[in-house]
Amino acid sequence: MRFAEVSNDWLRHQLATNGVGVDFGAARARIRSTEPALAAMLRTVYGAYTLDASDGMFDVSVMLRPTPGVRAWWRPQVQLLCDGVRELEAFPRDTPLPLLEWGINYALASRMYCDLLLHAGVVERDGAAIVMPAMPGSGKSTLTAALSLNGFRLLSDEFGVVRLRDSALLPMLRPVALKNASIDVIATAFPAAVMGPRFPKTHKGTVAHLAPLPSHVEARHVAARPRLIIFPRFDAATDVDLEPVAKGRAFARLAVNSFNYDALGPDAFDALGQVVHQSSCWVLHYGNLEGAIAAIRRLVDAVHDRAQAPDADAISLVEGTS
Fold it and tell me: What does the pLDDT look like over 229-252, one tens digit per residue?
């Protein structure tokens, strides 16, 4: 069953008891919650995902519940437990989905050491993975969302997951968290896009979550070869401007923008080196979203014009297959 195919009542009961599992591609999470409003939100942003109600193994387990004590009556809050431990500040009780999404991100970033995790959006087109690392406010999520709705396959908005043995980019497919003005930009440009409710009370302002396309959910076990590294910088005064980046500088910026590079040591150095070696590296200044998408399409076309190598094809996540 998919999330969109079950009733709110059934999902509320399942969340409050055994929980539900979600497969993101590179990792799986079990979600439990006693918050009644969360069920409808999950059915919207995870609608195309298969719902796992089994007792299987999961990479992380999270529990969303009301904060006990006087908070239950005065300014009610909701808290998140990661593997039974509260590691994040509580949110207002009417803001459960942002806390859940940020909590899952935190749990994955702090617990996954099988792969190199870059803080980056990743999309794919014609077998070429495009890694877009960025600092907050640089327009990375807006650009990632727009690309995913314009002919590029979404692998992740938050994690560039690099498989250590061959430097392939693995999907960690989650809803895209859009903030403030970006919400209307995407909603206006792509009126058919499925988006969850808006939450105005977060520490990052107003947040809404874009649901991945069903075809991208179906392909969440298909990885891609790194071919482009693009550092986006939103600048309202600029139309579109591309500047090449030296590979050494790109490597340094990616390493700093990683969740676990230091912990993985030489394996991370080798894997990241291969990602940079196989990629063309650029800084993209943009104030025109359509122009930025067109520029990235041209870069992908140029990559394929230079070399139509067999290993540019999409590859399977399954060990040892292609």
Answer: 999 999 888 899 999 999 999 999
3-state SS class at 191: coil
CA distance 89 to 203: 11
In whole angstroms, give the CA distance from residue 178 to residue 237. 21
Q: Could you give the CA distance from residue 5 to residue 46 in angstroms, rounded to a whole number? A: 11
Give the CA diameter of the chain: 64
- Per-residue pLDDT tens digits for 160-176: 999 999 999 999 999 99
Is there a contact between 88 and 106 (Cβ–Cβ < 8 Å)? yes
Chain position carrying tokens 């009733």: 7
Q: What is the distance between the alpha carbons of residues 158 and 133, in angstroms, rounded to a whole number?
A: 9
Query: What one-letter code names the amino acid at 271?
Result: A
Three-class DSSP category at 92: strand
Q: Which helix (H) or strand (E) holds 106?
A: helix 96-111
pTM of the model: 0.92
φ/ψ bin of 67: left (φ > 0), alpha (ψ from -120 to 50), beta (otherwise): beta
The identity of residue 52, as a single letter, is D
CA distance 208 to 191: 14
- Token pair in block for residue 188: 């206006």
